[in-house]
Design goal:
Order of helices and strands: EEEEHEEHE
Shape: globular
Distance between the termini: 21 Å
Strand order of the largest sheet: 2-1-5-6-7-4-3
CATH architecture: Roll
Number of helices: 2
Helix content: 10-25%
Strand content: 35-45%
Oligomer: single chain
Length: 130
């Protein structure tokens, strides 16, 4: 599914928009996290440390919801429902460094013992708000 044309600016690195990721806990309750992201073709890529709540939730329940908010106009946002298409540790350290340069203009501060993982999320539905 293609991203709506009028929201493509939110996907650009220079916009530095945050993505708010909603996953589902084992008891069915929602869990939401603001997160760095980028895209690859029609997919949304996020990066986390293995073992975090969102990591465990997405492995067990791959359906997610997201909001990408325009940092300059808070009432303009793109709501996305999707599913995890795949995840991998391959290239995850390089990916988090890329995201760190996008958002913080510096290399990522890797903590000892972290095992980074990339999630590739396939959008299934968009709701547009502005």
């Amino acid at each position: 599914m293609k991203f709506p044309e009028k929201y493509l600016d939110l996907l650009k690195d220079e916009t530095k928009a945050y993505l708010f990721l909603a996953t589902t806990m084992p008891d069915g309750s929602p869990q939401v996290t603001p997160i760095w992201f980028n895209t690859e073709g029609e997919y949304i890529l996020i990066n986390t440390n293995e073992g975090r709540v969102k990591d465990r939730n997405m492995k067990a329940r791959p359906r997610v919801a997201m909001v990408i908010q325009d940092p300059s106009t808070p009432y303009r946002y793109l709501q996305v429902r999707g599913e995890v298409a795949e995840y991998t540790r391959e290239g995850a350290d390089e990916h988090i460094n890329q995201l760190s340069f996008k958002y913080d203009n510096r290399p990522f501060n890797h903590r000892k013992g972290q095992r980074r993982i990339i999630y590739k999320i396939r959008p299934l539905h968009f709701d547009q708000h502005n």
